[in-house]
Task: structure prediction
Amino acid sequence: MPHPPTPHPDKPFDLVVVGEVNPDLVLRGDVTPAFGQVEQIVEDATLTIGSSSAIFACGAAQLGLRVAFAGVVGDDIFGQFMRQQLAERGIDVSAIVVDPAIRTGLSVILSRGDDRAILTYTGAIGALRYDQIDRALLARARHLHLGSYFLLDALLPDIPRLFAAAHELGLTVSIDTNYDPSERWDSGLDAALRDVDLFLPNQAELLAIAGIDDVDAALEAMAQRVPLVAVKLGAQGGAARRGTEPARAAALPIDVMDTTGAGDSFDAGLIYGYLHGWDLERALRLACACGSLSTRAAGGTAAQPTLAEALLALDAIPF
Result:
């Protein structure tokens, strides 16, 4: 069964992130793509760290958590870029498998302020297998976070087994499913959630998975299955529930440049508070501060806050 985090463990990593590893090509401009060889001009183009799991890992490292990453990339320029960028942020990439038989995935994102259109080549995104995740690495960490559940095709049948193994080793477990492209919202998720301590969906994901069209009712329902549920509400901030204890926090007023990865930065803030034993309301306010501040620049990682920046902003978030 899920259990609370250990306050002061003697382990070299605060968390191991398991998930997809690919860059994003972020195009920024007020345009709508059109076929017929129509060429349109965008305002900016940035090749940056992409994928929910990698953006989360960077946000957690930026806050001062000790992070290791397990995933798969191809032996190509995009895979080299991702491993180098993560390593430069202090993330241990020794558990990222380089597979020359496949190509690294890529997302092309057209960002228009608070909205995005995304095209993704999956490549190696779904290639990670259970037998490629080092159990010894898990044993050296306090917490396991898994992102983009529905994209991890090769790992999907074994995710309940992975979470159970993590609990056996004394780790707590969090999951951000992200969107289900098939919109079936199952794929064994019920079994996986049995060994999850923190469930971190956005509003659309929460409502779809709970099968309820009201946020508060969906939170209450999911909190009966997972000890802590926190939902990202975009410009409205976030809400959370631990058992019967509710919490809400607003977003910061920010001049938004790009919302890419804001939810992943939210996750990083919440897990930082969770691992440090913060009360639910304070952890949620940190999560909202991290998510809000991350929207100040193009891409998911360029504006992720340090802990000092996030704590300063936290006090400005209304209850």
